[in-house]
Amino acid sequence: MVEKLEEPKKVFVKTYGCQMNVYDSNRMEDALEQDGYERTANMEEADLVLLNTCHIREKAAEKVYSEVGRIRKLKERRADTNRPMTIGITGCVAQAEGAEIMKRAKAVDLVAGPQTYHRIADIVNRAEQGEKPVETEFEIEEKFAKLPVATHKQVQARGVASFLTVQEGCDKFCTFCVVPYTRGAEVSRSVNQIIDEARGMVDAGVREVTLLGQNVNAWHGVGEDGREWGLGELLHGLASMEGLERLRYTTSHPVDMDESLINAHRELDCLMPYLHLPIQAGSDKILKAMNRHHTVSDYMHIIERMREARPDMAISGDFIVGFPGETDEDFEETLKVVRAVKYASAFSFKYSTRPGTPGADMENQVPEEVKSERLRQLQDLLNEQQVEFNRTCIGRKMDILLEKKGRREGQLIGRSPWLQSVIVDDMLGKPGDIIHVEITDAAPNSLNAVAAQKET
Ligand code: 5AD
Ligand code: SF4
Fold first, then answer.
1. Looking at CB atoms within 10 Å, which of 198, 299, 381, 422 has the fewest?
2. Where are the extended beta strands (E) located within 161-273?
3. Does residue 378 line the site of ligand 2, with CB under 6 A?
């Protein structure tokens, strides 16, 4: 081996947006590390800064431009001492804005959309040579086949719970959403690829895998038995993997919620009783305008079947308030859905007009102050429900997966089956252990617990 005399270059990646971006950032870091880069958590010392961006709501691009403005100053300071810095924009803003970014932000050296990450090391290389690459083509199958496999050390560094993208893109075309344009058409990764990646994770100490997809329950592929599998079958396939203790998946669309997925919750203990199922709005009129292809009653029926399959199922969701045409009565129906479902947690947003989506051209746009007031009401209710859900856990015994050390000496932080953060003091155990605890206290965003005996 030829010994390198120079210091390895350092890369800093900042991630915005969803869990898929977190996964993508990890894969890019792995690829760059294998190409000789070292990771750093300190932007100041980075030779390469990548901003992995999100375009889901307004002002995303503006935020990126102002962040680049700040980094440019660092870049200029480094240039004075002859240490060049390369700045790259990746993710959904890169896809949506493309070459425009180079025009507006001269400090940017490369632009790479989500389907080009398997070539990230080469794109960075070209940028370092002074070329200003803008790569935004869609070639999704290539990406997953060609991205380098993470080493054990790389997987281990990220802890015992991992994301694994199984599906990307979307063909649903909800009228508010940019994803079909930024991530492209719906594509499922092959069973082999998924199982290999999961096995690599488990061999490196991962105990919990969350399968990711913009439409994760639309995932399909040819299974190990030669038959067409859906997500339910895939979960079955993964459940038998020794050492893989817990499975989750996100985000699901109501239209693709099939029987086999519901049954998987009945049949698999390792499949956590937690479903993130956005409804977005509680009025059929608005759901139609959103092009959701389901009604409120379809949604409620799925929740009912899920709870019948797994009575302790916790439900989470996403909501948009103030979609064009939403009246006070329509909004009241959203509150009605929330009251009926009783969410364990949820995300809620003001409708944000996205140029290029059908929603942007609709009449009856809702005034900003109305959106703000509706969001406040909805979030008050959702927060109340989250506190209530956590409070009902007090006195309950459950298994938690220890993930990391807490802030205080002797403290450990774990995750409940329902995705709550659980703090335990003075207990023996290490990240990766599943321990049995009793919940003693509940805060809005975490639970406290002590060791408990398992009932036999
Ligand atoms: N405005 C507000 N929220 C949006 N989301 C997606 N597009 C928009 C938009 N234009 C929300 C949806 C989705 C979540 C990821 O982001 O609730 O489920
Ligand atoms: Fe943002 Fe959506 Fe892209 Fe994720 S997929 S990064 S949430 S725009």
1. 381
2. 161-165, 167-168, 187-188, 208-212, 220-222, 228-230, 246-250
3. no
